[in-house]
Amino acid sequence: LFFYKFGRFFYSDNLGDTFIEIKASETQNVYSLFSITRNGTLFGLKSNGGLYRSIDDGKTWTFACTGLNYPAFIDFQFISDSIMLALTLDGLFYTLDAGNNWTFLIESHQGKTYIGHYKIEVYFVDYGNLYYFKDLKSNPILVSRIVPQFGPNIQFRVNEISGTLFYWDELYLYRSIDKGANWDASQIAGIG
Description:
Blueprint: E1 2-5, E2 8-11, E3 20-22, H1 24-27, E4 31-36, E5 42-46, E6 51-54, E7 62-63, E8 73-78, E9 84-88, E10 91-95, E11 103-107, E12 113-118, E13 121-126, E14 129-133, E15 141-145, E16 155-158, E17 165-168, E18 172-176, E19 184-187
Antiparallel strand pairs: 1-2, 2-3, 4-5, 5-6, 6-7, 8-9, 9-10, 10-11, 12-13, 13-14, 14-15, 16-17, 17-18, 18-19
């Protein structure tokens, strides 16, 4: 287990019974978000947005952003141990080699942007426009505008088991079972 708290980085090798602090000099900088693959490779986002990889439980880190112009990460997701999506201030990128090299998919307009995937299908939301990629080599298809007024409190997710798309705001939860072509809304209980 890894966690970051108030500029300090800790890990546990006994499922959280005890934690050991890793000093900032050992981590090369402050990491604020962690994710781990099934094969044990650890990825960490630095506070400035750079993505780094560790194969020795966080003791040493290597830069994992080759191919990215400005690697300020907003989000990243694993499709498999070696295939990842990265949403940066520049746009959406993917890697087929566990972060060694990145390929550009689509530009971001640096507003509210989200990514999601179902198997190898990729969804990208940029300023309320929903784009669909049938795979990482295909061109983006503008599917729909998911919100007429894309507000500051919208969230977007893809159910990685069923492929159902969701987005929500303060009052409604929206769902699409047909890759974003049609949406149904239900009021969130207890709100409004």
